[in-house]
Amino acid sequence: MLEKLQVQIAAAAALAVAYFFMSRLVRPWEPGGTMVFIPAGDYGRLAVFAVLVWLLSVGCAILTLSARPDGALLAVLIGAAGFALKSGPARLLLQSRNGEFGRLFVLLAGEALVMSAVVAGAIAVIFLVRAAARRVCPSLVWIAPAPVESPEAGSTKKDKGRKDKKNAPSGTGGLPHVGAALLMEMAVALILLLITFRSTDRGQIAFALAASFFLSALAAHQTFPIRISAPFWVGPILMAALVFILGWVGVGGSEGPAWYTAQMAAKNLPFRAALPIDWLTFGGAGAVAGFWLSSRINEAKTKSTETPGRKD
To answer: What are the structural domain ranges in the chain?
Structure first.
């Protein structure tokens, strides 16, 4: 309960600060404009956005010292959604780029990939804050549970080591498991997005991305319980890049009213109306939430297999 409360408080505080105050520093120049940076050629505003997200990371890391680091990252991404909520619809961006849609989609794909650097920076800030706090008051900082040894007597050392690995919370690892988890998350998310993404309204975009990646990350982590969250928050960013590349392919060589052509391109993938910042915040937060919940579920399962009153 304490861990969940910390994450909820940090997320609510970060969202309020980003929405009411920080967003004024990176809002689009035109009223109601879309929250994009690279397509607008505004790299300075992109740098400011990254710094603001990292400042949110400092606050969230302090408020969630007794929670898992992924809880702090979840609070940061929910808070950063305050920037996305200030954005206008993607169709305004399309209408303003008459005849330049191939280049626009390529720039959007690039911006989506740049968002991964923003998340990586946030993770680095969280771990730096925790490292500093551990020096001052180590009892306040969350410590990962150690692998649980098998309580069964008479087992061989080899069998025991195998059971320890099996019972360890979120214990599988290695590049094959990481890749499998990422692919499974993206595959499940694609199916769910095709079901949930029924319109291009901002509220629908937020719900579809958050719900789809929450469920897909939860399912992927339950199947491949790796220790790191990176493959899960990378999933929305990679899918965003692929969606925009498909948009670029779809408008290549088309004629007619440019903004209408762009809206109709890849019409079987309407979720390309989501902006890079939407994939980062709504999709990323949903994915990290699914990983965070799955980790807690696995830890609870591990504790339930321990034999009461016995110590190895």
So the answer is: 2-143+171-301
